[in-house]
Each structure stands twice: as structure tokens, then as C-alpha cells.
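Check this:
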Amino acid sequence: MGGGEDEAVQPLFATKQLKGRVAYRCFASTIFVGICLILVSRLKHIPSAEEHGRWAWIGLFMAELWFGFYWIITQSVRWNVIHRVPFKDRLLQRYGEKLPGVDIFVCTADPTLEPPTLVVNTRLASRFSKHWIPFCKKFKVEPRSPQGYFVQHNDSQDITYAHEWLAIKKLYEEMKNRIESAVEVGSIPKEVRDQHKGFSEWDSKITKKDHQSIVQILIDGRDTNAIDSDGNRLPTLVYIAREKRPANKSVIRDEQWTYNPKPDCDMYSNDPDAIMDALCFFLDEEKGHRVSYVQYPQHYNNVHKSNIYSCSNMVVNKIELAGLDGYGGALYCGTGCFHRRESLCGRRYSEDFKAEWSTRTWKNAEELSRSWKKHPKSLPIVAMRRMGLMYGCSVEDVITGLVIQCKGWEPVYYSPCKRAFLGVAATTLDDALINTRGGLKGCFRYFSKYCPFFYGHRKIKLGAQMGYCVYLLWAPNSLPMLYYTIVPPLFLLRGVALFPEIISTLNPNVNFYLFGTTRGAYLLAFPTILQVRLQQLEAVWCGDSFKAWWNLERTWLIRSATSYLFALIDNLTKQLGLSETTFVITAKVADEGVLKRYQQEIIEFGNVSLMVTIISTLALLNLFSLVGGMTRVIFSMEFRGGVAGLIPHIILCGLTVMLNLPVYHALFIRSDKGRIPSSVMFKSIVLSSLACLLPYLL
């Protein structure tokens, strides 16, 4: 134990509150008052049935009511941001080398879109690991991913290190070439099949979507000969292919393991101490037995400072998720997560659950050993999707974390200074939108019994309920966003004002919106300006640049019109029994042209897709409306409601046009392969032109 009785009872982690919460709440309260004034004024001045734009006005009121509700729940998680601090030194002093077993589960689905060499850098291959592990220990290598390490480090002036560096680099390149050759020819070499009989089951008679379960123990940790080049035991490494049949879902069995981290195949460990950090939460004597899982934030090694696709949202990682943790909740992100077996498999927490982990670990190891010898095919497969599929949605859904917490467990969100896991972010807009769409499967559960407000009632805190709702409502949020993107521009062309007047002297005969003065208009604009400024401050505080914040605003607009909308449709059709949930895999590698443009921070459109067509059509619609509206204002054409009432329309269209500048550039200026295809451009021009004619036909 070491250190005496007092040290033995010291906590293994601490929880710290973020400073400045009072000032933040005062700032947010001011914005809330402004939002209420806007809603009251719009409700009070709904046009009569004889006036133009009555239903459009009501529609804007409903959209603003939704935005107000969504703003409230997003702000709720920001009011209780906390930060976790694990104490690894205390963990080692208390337990030494007698730590529980940790099984690492890495899933992959497609050898083309998810190349095996990518998986190797997540979980080392058997032969190479015998040399790589001693090299890492000797020279304290970080990161432990070979590819990540060799990209960052070159051989140094140290002769010994340089010699071993070159030798291990050569072994890695040889292994990489063998793997890529096997993928290219579509078969495993005969010597490998002879050595590992399980691989021989992959023959011409089976496909990746129709095959029996295939299991091959590559490294058997029980074998005394399974040692590295320094004579130390190697961990067990197992290859598993789940049974898949066209008519049936693949089944994953629940077996005995203690703690299990689940990284995606394209994510590698950037911090070798991440496991130790997670164990600090699980093994804390006072609170550890309640911890269900420890979730790390998602980070990527190829995201540049401007973050053009907003793949890594620093505000979400550092504020929103940490705020949800302050209410006892933690969003399960589907990767970079350490699970306790009992919670993931659906067991309800009990105060009696304080099992002796050391005894259970060794007992389970003995049981597994006997099971492997008797039934190799029954090798346990971690139940990573059982919890999610139990409720008819992906395990990466918000519902999984909600259900686990409502069973009495307490998840933990931990965001260390050093990033624990690094993955590969999308390098094209299409892939980024597909990933977002896939991540929202199951979001419509908000309108079911799993709505956090109902399912979590009296089980979890109200702040946690609101925090889970933030992410469940991403997809429905597309409808009011689309309304705001389409309706005001069309009514600008028609000359019907749907917003308050900004300059009262332009038309003194018009009934004013609420206050009837320029000062009143300023008060109405005040909450919007404050909110924008608050978002900028949050982004800068979290480490983002102003350009990254601006790109996030564009990404939010694009996602609302595409991936969020499509995810909403997917969920609706699934609820109605018209479709089944599908899992779409995006490419984890890019060709040289795409990669070059990505490094130059140029958005990759490229594909002829419905999403790109929607993006370009909405961009052109706002551009045409802005030009038409400005022309009318300049030439003082007659407007219903006064010229001043159209200024907010012009400002809104102008901001939308500014956000879509890269779209116009891809439509009319760029000539590279990443531009918007000509066929999409012509369709978008036709569709947006037809939309602009609607105000004159109504």
C-alpha cells in the first residue's frame, strides 16, 4: 500500500469548478431578457388576416420560439462546467503493478475505406510488436502509434538511437508493404494462412457481408513463448470477424472483461498514460464503484487551425461536454471511451456493487482460458453494441449514455491537456456531412419514451436532462434554420417586411414594431450582438481562431440544410417502418489532390450529390435575393411595410452570402477537381431562379 493509512484513503481524482460562472450567468441572463422581448414583440404585432406576410410572420415567430428554447438548453450545460484531475501517482502507490485487466476493442468494417495499415497503428500487429514495444520502453516513445511517431520524429545525433530508429523504421515499412500488398491482391499470403489457420477461412465462397464467425489468436498471452525481444510477456492479440448474414443482424456476445477502452480503427493513443488516468476514476475508493464509463474528447491529428469542416469542435469539448459532466452526465461519443462491463451490458447500479476487482479479474482470466481451449469459436466478443441495439438505435447515440446514467451509474467526462486519442478527420465536405448524418441516427428518440425530460425524470438532474437534449435536437433544428434561410430572402424580393424597422425616420407613417424608436430597434438587436460576441469569446478561450469560429458558423448553416435535415428524414422513415438504419463508412485516406487542397484550406465539394445541390441552391437564392432587394432599396421602389423594415432582411441575406463565399468561388471561379461540378451549378441556377419567381406568383 505504501504511505500509511492516511494516504490509502486519499481520492484518486479531484473535481474543480470553472471560474467566472457568476459573470457568465449575468451575461447569459441579459441575452435571455432580450430574447423574451423579441418574442413578445413579434407575438404582439402579428399582421392581420388582410395584411401580406401574416403566415410568414407566424412562421418566423415559431422559428424564433424554437431558437429561444434551444438557446436555453444549450446555456444550461454552460452554467456548471467542471474539470476532472486524476492522480496517477496515488494510483501507483496504492496498487503498484496489481491493476485490473483492460481489454482494448478496435472495430473496423471495410479494408478499402479503412486501410489495415491504419488499424495497425491503432492496435499493433503481432510480429512487429515484439520489437516496437521494447523500442518504445527504451526511448520513451510518444505517441505509441508507429505512423504518428515516424511522422513527428527523425533520427537524432545519438548513434545508438539513430541505429535502432532506422532498424525499427525498416521493420515497420516492411510490415506496411506486406499488408498493402495483401489488400491489393485481395488474399492473404500462403505462409500467413499456414501460420494462422483462422485466416484460411476467408476464401472465395464468402463475402464481407455473408460469412461465419472467424477467430484467430495472433498472440496468446498465456503462452510462455509469447515474449518480445527483451523477454517480456506480450498482451493477447485476437482477430475476430463477427458472423454476418444478409437476413440477420450480427450477434455480439457478452463475456467477462473488466474495463474496456473502445477507440475507432482510425484513432491511435497519443498519451500512453490515458489508461492510467481512466483507472483513477474507476478505482477511487469513495466514488469509483459508481463510474460506468470514462469518456475522452474526440481530437484529430490532421485538423488545421482554421478547421474548415469543424470536425473538432473545441467549444463542445471544453465547455458543453464538461458542463454536462457537472450535472453527473457524460455524452457517449462512440470512441475514446473506457467502459465498465457491468454498466454497458445493461445492469442497474446497486449500492452493494463493490466487487473485489482483483479477484474477479484473475477468476475471469481462468474462465476465459478454459473457454478458449474447449471452444475457440466462442471467444468472447465485447458487447459494444448491445446496449444501443437494445433500444433500436446506434450505440453511439445519446440515448446510450442517458440509459446508463438512469440505471444509477455515473459516467465521467475527462478532457486532459494532452490529447489522449487522435484520429483522422474528414478531408472532403461530403465525408464530413455523411459522418454528421450517421452520428445523428436515433436522434428522433427525443419524441419517444426516451425523451430525457420523461425518461430521466427523478432519475437524473434537470441540467443533465437538458444537456442530453442539446444533441438529440440537432436534427430537428434543421427545420427552423431552413425556414430562416429561405423565407426572409423570398419576402425581400416581394417587398414585404417581416422584421422591425431600424431607422424610424425613413417612414414615420408606419406602425412601429414594439418600441417605435431607433432605440427600440437597438434593444431588439442587442441580444443577437451579445450572443455572437459570446460565441467568439468562447471559441477564443477554447483555443480556436476567429477564422475557425467563422468556419463553424458556415458549417452549422450547411449541416442544417443537409446532414441534419437528412438525419431527421432518416429517423422519421425508420419510425414509420419505411426504411432500416444503415451504417455508412467514409474513406479514411485521401488522394494527393484532395489532400493538397485540404492542406491549403480549400473546401472540397467535388461530388455530384443532392447535398451539394442543396448547398449551392440556397447560396444562390440568398445572392439573388440580396441583389434584388438592394436594387429595390436603391431605386426607392414601393414596399409593403416600409423600406426600413426590409433592412433586417438585407442584413440577414448579406451575412448568409458572406458565409457562402467559398460556395460561389467553387461555382464560378475554381477550375480544380474540388469545384462544384457544372451539372450541379446549372441545376442550382434553375432551382434558385424558380424559387425567386415564387414571390411574384403569390
Summary: The beta strands are 13-17, 82-86, 214-219, 237-241, 259-262, 268-269, 291-295, 337-340, 410-413, 421-422. The radius of gyration is 28 Å. The chain has a mean pLDDT of 80.
